[in-house]
């Protein structure tokens, strides 16, 4: 369990560095509420969108591709957490997007950025 948590934290740090290089501004990390959790919240400076990001880090393919873990149940919890975040922070009239960042740490580090995973 400890090893998985450390890999996840490491993957989130790699994801932040990647996003900053791609002109995103990190607003919040590990937003958690009763409805669910969001790994990263960032602003896409180029598109002027608020982006909610799920980071999935894998060191092997034993359980499939990282994005496969963002199933219907996870999406439901993310949607509820996003709604709460927007309400809590009184955010209105801004385009939002939900992305998944797959971080692979097999041999070397690779990132696959999947944009707009659900409407």
Question: Describe it for me?
Answer:
The chain is built from 2 helices and 5 strands. It has 119 residues and is an alpha+beta fold. It has a single domain, classed as Trna Endonuclease, Chain: A, domain 1 (3-Layer(aba) Sandwich), CATH 3.40.1350. α2 links the parallel β3 and β4. It starts with a helix and ends in a 5-residue tail after the last strand. The mean pLDDT is 89.
Helix content: 25-40%
Averaged pLDDT, please?
A: 89
Strand arrangement across the biggest beta sheet = 1-2-3-4-5
Q: Largest sheet, described in full?
A: 5 strands, mixed
Total strand segments: 5
- Which topology does CATH recognise? Trna Endonuclease, Chain: A, domain 1
**How far do the termini sit from each other?**
32 Å
| CA-based shape | globular
pLDDT under 50 segments (min length 5)? none
Assigned CATH class: Alpha Beta
Strand content: 35-45%
Give the SSE order as H and E letters. Answer: HEEEHEE
Structural domain count: 1
In terms of structural class, how would the helical and strand content be classed? alpha+beta
Number of helices: 2
């Amino acid at each position: 369990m400890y090893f998985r948590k450390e890999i996840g934290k490491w993957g989130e740090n790699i994801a932040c560095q990647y996003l900053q290089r791609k002109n995103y501004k990190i607003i919040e990390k590990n937003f958690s509420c009763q409805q669910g959790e969001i790994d990263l919240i960032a602003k896409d400076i180029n598109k002027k969108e608020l982006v909610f990001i799920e980071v999935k880090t894998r060191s092997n393919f034993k359980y499939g591709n990282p994005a496969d873990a963002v199933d219907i149940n996870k999406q439901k919890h993310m949607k509820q957490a996003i709604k709460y975040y927007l309400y809590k922070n009184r955010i209105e009239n801004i385009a939002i997007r939900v992305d998944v960042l797959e971080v692979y740490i097999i041999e070397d580090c690779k990132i696959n950025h999947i944009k707009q995973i659900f409407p």
